[in-house]
């Protein structure tokens, strides 16, 4: 009787919710996560577009909820660990779903969560993978993508005013990607990418693109859960050993604190650093799972020739992926890296434990400059990380964590807890302690700093939904760094607070307002003292964003944001930003478009503001704004034929009161910066 009731009740309830205007577009919470990630990575927007590719893939081949495993549900980045565990247990107890609308009966699944899932899931009979094995190679989908972009104004790097440091290539950024995929069971393809400033079919790049990537990935082949050849990523534990997939940190999504993904995943993005190149396989038998992988690749490094002792070394590993200047070209592929690793785990509906290991061997030892903050940095020819990860679900609680060590026996651990206190109240807690000597490569844990090292902290979050339309999210995080850091010449500590109120009135209106405050220590020496004093600098931010859907075709969106840096001190800075968007997307329709008009005014870089921008398919932009000026962009998408689509983007930033913008080789002797982008996709 309960199932029948939900079949009738849920469609009516869902109709009262805001339908996503574009299922290929990340949710507002994911956009906030990406903004935070860019800020944490020193303004570098991640080039990992795998999540956007997966969203599109799931709209074409939805996940069947009657046979979806934990890994597939994790890929959506919509459900937290407790919701996934409740779903798996519910399906085991009550059997397969009659209708997709029955999902509201799953404990912890609200109507809003189900609404977010609807574009990407379905309910149908399970297909025998052995019967469809031949179809993987015959009935798949081919996709060819070609993308080109350019900043129209020439920067100093292209003018060659410096005879030893300049961009040797052209200003175009060019990407191509071919991919063959069959549902969510198999994919293969090749990617090529040339960054702006790199040469193309000449000079040091006679082979064409600066970066090539190829992969083959298949899953559900009997006992073989997944197999990867070529380029792939490995996700182990909670990110203390290795984590190659996109992973988020603190945001208004306060329950998204656990790293969740299958161990092996295909890689076909344009980022040139955090991936493996070789082979990997995952075997699964009942509740047991085992993964092994090996990788060998050339990587960029700052090579130092020791002509006295004949002991060559590298002073640092280069992670930008740029090969534009003579210096960057000299660093390309100057180091060799051999990686091997694996995982053995046992899992059931409520319990998981896994053992993880990864080992790196380099051709040349790493020997960083002898600065005091580098005393515990990566060094030597060999690096090893080993860990045990675990999780346990009991009723309305989900506990998880990882304990790790490196080859020098330095320790690190992360422990977290998700609790559904009430059907309208959820809480999260996470404690991490990572010694100053613990070092890892290509790792990504839930920490304040980019890499998990030299940090202890306690995080707590709460999400309250007093009504169907109102939600309050808040977190507090306290952390400390027992050793020195770059630009912090003493042990330090900090704190981070956020509260966000979201109001969803129904089909058309969505509003959220948030306040964020963070205090971090940094060197502050205006008097040029012999030793740099370390001072705590508070940064406060308030943002309100509104989205209103006039019709099924037009949506209006606007944001106002204010920021205050160290506002009671002599170096205080203030800033604000406001923008308005208009989105046009008929359904069905061949043409869609989006437009933004924006104004920003800040006192300097310390009061900078980040703003997510809609872009062409599989792409997004998160510029950092400081100074004073205007910005606008317009995006067009037109389906020329049934299987050919074109995207065009034009964006321009106009700075007032400036005659020169940018710095270094990217300095432009004008007050404008104009970007154009063109993309064509053919599906056949």
Main traits of this protein?
globular, 9 helices, single chain, mainly beta, 24-stranded antiparallel beta barrel, two-stranded parallel ribbon, 12% helix, Porin, disordered N terminus, 684 residues
What is the compact description of this entry?
With 684 residues, the chain is mainly β. It contains nine helices and 31 strands.
Chain-averaged pLDDT: 91
Tally of contiguous helical segments: 9
Q: Segments where pLDDT lies below 50 for 5+ residues? A: 1-10, 12-20
The percent of residues in helical segments reads 10-25%
How many angstroms does the end-to-end distance come to? 46 Å
* CATH class type: Mainly Beta
CATH topology: Porin
Architecture (CATH level 2) name:
Beta Barrel
| Proportion of beta-strand residues | over 45%
Count of separate structural domains? 1
Radius of gyration: 25 Å
Q: Shape, please?
A: globular
Could you say which structural class the secondary elements and strand pairing correspond to?
mainly beta
Largest sheet: 24 strands, antiparallel, barrel
Give the beta-strand count: 31
Description of the molecule:
The protein has 684 residues and is mainly beta. It has one domain: Beta Barrel (Porin), CATH 2.40.160. 12% of the residues lie in helices and 45% in strands. It has 9 helices and 31 strands. It has helices spanning 2-15, 28-40, 50-60, 70-75, 81-94, 111-117, 135-138, 156-159, 326-331, and strands spanning 63-64, 121-122, 141-151, 172-182, 186-194, 211-221, 224-234, 264-266, 276-285, 288-299, 301-304, 313-317, 335-347, 351-366, 380-394, 397-406, 411-422, 425-434, 455-464, 470-481, 492-504, 509-523, 534-549, 554-565, 573-584, 591-602, 609-610, 624-625, 628-641, 644-655, 672-683. It is globular and about 70 Å long. The two termini are 46 Å apart. The model is unreliable at 1-10 and 12-20 (pLDDT under 50).
